[in-house]
Amino acid sequence: MDALIPFTTSGSLVDLVDKKVLVVLRDGKKLIGVLRSYDQFANFLLEDAVERLHFKFEYSDVDIGVLLIRGENVVALGEVDLIAEDNIPLRPIPADEIRAKIADAEKRRERDNIVKDKVMASLGFVSDRHEGDAY
């Protein structure tokens, strides 16, 4: 059967259908669900999808349900090892708590970056954290 499917990007995904997968998106979101279908553009249909939020050794899953993911937004796709998943030393906490912790860490990171930018500017370097610079 495998010899009948040409080895292309979409053809190599056939082994992942009906398996639990982790999808990483361009915006940094991590989605976990059962891959039910895909097409030649790597658009994915996930069933029982959740968004996994994590902060250090804590995590929370936000239920989504059925989700269609546009292929151009996918950075990585991989199968979840169901046995190894049970051995991960992460502690589940409510989504509101983890969102607050992530927001606090982001504010701290922004404050640190402002200080770093000022120090670097005093040394003659230009910051590259401005949105228009990277395009």
UniProtKB/TrEMBL annotation:
Keywords: Cytoplasm, mRNA processing, Ribonucleoprotein, RNA-binding. SUPFAM superfamilies: Sm-like ribonucleoproteins (SSF50182). It is found in: Cytoplasm; Cytoplasm, P-body. Transmembrane segments: none annotated. Coiled coil: none annotated. One of its GO terms (cellular component) is ribonucleoprotein complex. Residues 8-83 form the Sm domain. PROSITE patterns: SM (PS52002). One of its GO terms (molecular function) is mRNA binding. SMART domains: Sm (SM00651). GO terms for biological process: deadenylation-dependent decapping of nuclear-transcribed mRNA; mRNA processing. Its main location: cytoplasm. Component of the cytoplasmic LSM1-LSM7 complex which is involved in mRNA degradation. Belongs to the snRNP Sm proteins family. Component of the heptameric LSM1-LSM7 complex that forms a seven-membered ring structure with a donut shape. This is U6 snRNA-associated Sm-like protein LSm1. It comes from Vanrija pseudolonga.
